[in-house]
Each structure stands twice: as C-alpha cells, then as structure tokens.
Amino acid sequence: MNPKLILAAALTLGVAGAAFAQGQSASPASSPPASSPPEAAKAEAAKPERACFFNRDIRGFAAPDDKTLYLRVRSKEVFRLEMMGRCPDLDWESRIAIDSRGSSSICDPVDATVLVRGPVGIDRCPVRAITRLTPEEAAALPRKARP
C-alpha cells in the first residue's frame, strides 16, 4: 500500500472526526436559537410574491417611456417590466414581442427580453425587474401607461 495515501486518509478522517466532536460538545446555550414557527411564517410572508405569467396570456401593453413597459396579462393583471437601459422606440411601437428563455413562463427578469422593431432591425431590450401591480396600483396608472 502507498504510505502517502494512508497518511492522507488518516488526516482527513482525523480532521472530520475532530470537527464532528467539536460540534457535538458545543453547549446548547452557545448554538444559535432556532427561529420559532411564528417568526419563520413572518419571514416567509415578507418575501415578495413571484410575479409569473405566460407569453400566451399577454393581452395588451403600454410603454409610457423607453425604460418602462406595462403588460396586461389575462384579463385583469398588470405587470411592470423595467428595462436595464433605454429601449429605443419602445414608447412609439404598436407591436412588440417578448422573447422568453427556456419556456413561455416568465418569472424573473432573466427570463424575458423585449423585442422592438427599430429603423435598422430588431432591438433586444433586457429586462431589469418585473413587478405585478396591485389592482389599486394598476387603476392609478396615468392613461398613457394603461395597457
């Protein structure tokens, strides 16, 4: 047998055993307190809800400027897509496309790229943020921004 291999295995086992023993000997007072179920529920409720929709459910759009796009999804939902930068001609186009990666489900900004026809060809506009608006927020949008 190779003596170096035996020594390496013994050292690995010794370090792992010492770490395990140290973890077992720690007193309960020194370990961090586990969060109680109500605290865990509050933390879960504080997480923002994922804003997901399918390409096929988009029913309309409005672009009040070249960095913001509002989508009407299904019949009543409104989503705001914020572009990473300027998206030329976004606020002038009557037709756009959403290129989704992997599937037609869009949940995260990396899932979508807005495609806008420009004077030279198609402009690809990456999305920075997707937000589902509440019914109150959607109703408060200025007329130009309503999809």
Your description of this structure?
- The protein has 147 residues and is an alpha+beta fold.
- It has a domain at 53-145.
- The chain has helices at residues 3-25, 37-46, 135-139; strands at 53-54, 58-62, 68-73, 77-83, 96-100, 105-106, 112-117, 122-132.
- The strands form 2 sheets. It has a 6-stranded antiparallel β-sheet with strand order 2-3-4-8-7-5, with no helix packed on it. Strands 1-6 form a two-stranded antiparallel ribbon.
- β7 and β8 (122-132) form a beta hairpin.
- The longest helix has 23 residues, at 3-25.
- Mean pLDDT is 76; it is low at 1-32.
- Keywords: Signal.
Chart the SSEs and their pairings.
Layout: H1 3-25, H2 37-46, E1 53-54, E2 58-62, E3 68-73, E4 77-83, E5 96-100, E6 105-106, E7 112-117, E8 122-132, H3 135-139
Antiparallel strand pairs: 1-6, 2-3, 3-4, 4-8, 5-7, 7-8
The portion of residues assigned to helices is 25-40%
Structural class: alpha+beta
- What count of helical segments does DSSP give? 3
**Could you describe the largest sheet, including whether it forms a barrel?**
6 strands, antiparallel
Gyration radius, rounded? 26 Å
Q: Strand-residue fraction?
A: 25-35%
Distance between the termini: 74 Å
Strand order of the largest sheet: 2-3-4-8-7-5
| Uncertain segments | 1-32
Query: What letter string, H or E per element, gives the SSE order?
Result: HHEEEEEEEEH
Shape: globular
> What's the average pLDDT?
76
